[in-house]
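Please decode residue identities from the backbone states below.
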């Protein structure tokens, strides 16, 4: 079963991921496309948790649970093996992106976006297979509470006290100790924004998606709840979670890099609100006629995300003279940007935004053609 609103919402999220990951000029970022420096959040900080939330929702449509809303269901042979295999493929795709094109195993970053998606998918899919919705809610609460206690109560080895500073918190210590500085995010040097410990609360983000997916499918279990009522309840639940996350902020600041419990609640709540709006407009009211392009992004999410990271790397292996005529050489991507896009704008920030939008537009055309020809590449 496919839910068109879910595909469209996923598509919007994927398009946004491409937009923020591919500015024309990293030195002149358009402000809303930048992450918060540490605590706090920007619209860009919502994109990744939105995708993990959608992963949770998608699991309820793609997999058969061992427990339905009204008790235990039949087991599916080989389901666990398929779940682990898919998660590992996602992890290895991300690891390959980190390796390419140098293949320097001594300094390669181990974690990353696709790696976290793979690990969270495995955890949530297995939880979905083996637990009831009420148990999943309990697990999510336990994760958020235990993570809060770990980060604010446990003394950091070598530091002597718990703290939430960038390089001295417990999550940073674990990345530094286990992954080592040679294998973390190069810009951070000693910690990773998709690190080991912060992946733990990311599981709760997808568990919120599981619960939303259950709710949207209640009609499959004989419920008489109207579709518009389901959309309204989902929206109000999202508002409540976002408010709860905001209230939790003084005790455990909203922080994407640490994936704090308050951040999970805020981002998960806003994701619920977004999905509820899409569900109401597209599947309930049958409106929002121009959602096809978003659906095109949404049915091939991993493919476009992986290739949008790989193709620029390949193109930048082609070195060309700097467009102003100097002997300095730049990669093909930068050559095209500096030669054809940047000169059209007096403001380098707007030029950078135009470069990102150009790439999203190119992908929109490619994915629309794939969508019309029903080409869907599954991982």
């Amino acid at each position: 079963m496919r839910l068109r609103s879910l595909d469209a919402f996923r598509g919007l999220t994927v398009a946004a991921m491409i937009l923020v990951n591919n500015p024309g000029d990293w030195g002149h970022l358009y402000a809303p496309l930048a992450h918060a420096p540490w605590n706090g959040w920007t619209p860009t900080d919502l994109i990744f948790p939105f995708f993990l939330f959608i992963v949770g929702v998608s699991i309820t449509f793609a997999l058969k649970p061992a427990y339905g809303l009204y008790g235990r269901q039949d087991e599916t042979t080989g389901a666990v093996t398929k779940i682990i295999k898919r998660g590992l493929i996602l992890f290895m795709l991300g690891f390959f992106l980190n390796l390419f094109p140098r293949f320097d195993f001594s300094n390669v970053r181990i974690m990353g976006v696709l790696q976290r998606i793979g690990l969270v998918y495995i955890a949530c899919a297995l939880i979905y297979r083996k637990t009831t919705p009420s148990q999943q809610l309990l697990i999510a609460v336990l994760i958020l509470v235990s993570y809060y206690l770990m980060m604010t109560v446990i003394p950091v080895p070598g530091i002597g006290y718990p703290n939430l500073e960038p390089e001295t918190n417990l999550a940073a210590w674990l990345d530094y100790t286990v992954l080592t500085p040679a294998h973390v995010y190069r810009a951070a040097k000693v910690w990773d924004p998709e690190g080991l410990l912060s992946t733990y609360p990311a599981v709760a983000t997808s568990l919120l998606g599981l619960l939303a997916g259950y709710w949207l499918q209640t009609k499959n279990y004989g419920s008489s709840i109207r579709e518009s009522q389901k959309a309204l309840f989902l929206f109000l639940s999202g508002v409540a979670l976002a408010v709860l996350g905001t209230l939790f902020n003084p005790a455990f600041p909203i922080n994407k890099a640490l994936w704090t419990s308050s951040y999970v609640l805020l981002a998960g709540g806003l994701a619920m609100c977004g999905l509820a709006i899409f569900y109401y407009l597209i599947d309930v009211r049958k409106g929002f006629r121009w959602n096809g392009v978003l659906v095109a992004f949404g049915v091939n999410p991993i493919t476009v995300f992986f290739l949008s990271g790989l193709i620029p790397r390949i193109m930048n292996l082609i070195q060309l003279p700097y467009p102003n005529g100097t002997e300095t050489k730049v990669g093909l991507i930068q050559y095209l940007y500096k030669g054809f896009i940047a000169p059209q704008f007096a403001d380098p920030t707007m030029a950078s935004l135009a470069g990102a939008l150009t790439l999203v537009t190119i992908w929109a055309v490619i994915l629309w053609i794939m969508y019309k020809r029903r080409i869907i590449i599954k991982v």
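Observation: The two ends are 17 Å apart (CA to CA).
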